[in-house]
Write a structure and sequence with these properties.
homodimer, alpha+beta, 3 helices, histidine biosynthesis (chains A, B), about 130 residues, PRA-CH (chains A, B), four-stranded mixed beta sheet, cytoplasm (chains A, B), Ubiquitin-like (UB roll), amino-acid biosynthesis (chains A, B), globular, hydrolase (chains A, B)
Amino acid sequence: MTETHAGEATETGVDLAFDEQGLLPAVAQDAESGEVLMLAYVNREALARTRETGEAHYYSRSREELWHKGASSGHTQAVEEVRVDCDGDTLLYLVEQDGGACHTGYRSCFYRTVDGETVGEKVFDPDDVYE
Amino acid sequence: MTETHAGEATETGVDLAFDEQGLLPAVAQDAESGEVLMLAYVNREALARTRETGEAHYYSRSREELWHKGASSGHTQAVEEVRVDCDGDTLLYLVEQDGGACHTGYRSCFYRTVDGETVGEKVFDPDDVYE
C-alpha cells in the first residue's frame, strides 16, 4: 500500500454531516444476499482508508482508534460501494463479507430478535479465531 | 388504540444499551427485498409504540419528539420483526414499506453513492405528498 493521500480520499461528491465527535454511523450490508451485517462508526480517516484500500475500516469508539475490520480475525469486508443517505449523516457499505461479521461467530451481528430469539446463522467458533 | 402500557412493551428479552441521550440507532430494512431503507433513532417510548402498534416509530432528534413514520406522508412501515445487535446498541426493523421511505421521493434514503451518483429508485413526487 502506498502512502496515504487523505486529501484525495476524503473528498466526496456528497457533503457528509459528521457529528460533534467527527463520526458517522455506517451500516454494512452483504452486497449479494442483502443481509444487514453490522453497524459501526467511521471518522474521516476510516472512510478515506476504506476508499483507498477497498476494505472496510471503522473507528472503534471503545478502543478510540482506527479499526481495520478483520485485521485480527481475518474476517475482512471487501467494499463494493459506499452509499450515503439523504441528509448525509449515515453511510451504507455494500460488502463482500469474509467469514462472519460478528465477533460472536454469527454471520450478522443482528442474530437475535429483541425478545432474545436466535434467528441468525453461526458461521465460526470465536474460540478458534480470537486468542 | 388502547392506552399505552409502556411497562409491558419496553420489556425486551435482550438488554438494550441506550446512549447518554436515551437513544439507539435503528436501521429499517425492507423485509421482502432486503433493501436498506433508512436509519433513524429510537428512545424507549418509540420502541414501545412500535411494538404496541406494529408500525415503526422513531424519535426525531431535530424536532425532539416521538415520530410516527408516515403519519404525514402516509408512507408507514409495518414492522414484521425487531432485531438487536450483539452488544445491544443498534436495532434492525424489518418492515413492509408503504410508498417510499425517503422524504425526497426515493424508495430508500440511501439513493446515492458517496460520490453523488444516483442509484436509487424514485417512487413518488414529494410535492404531491408534503404540503
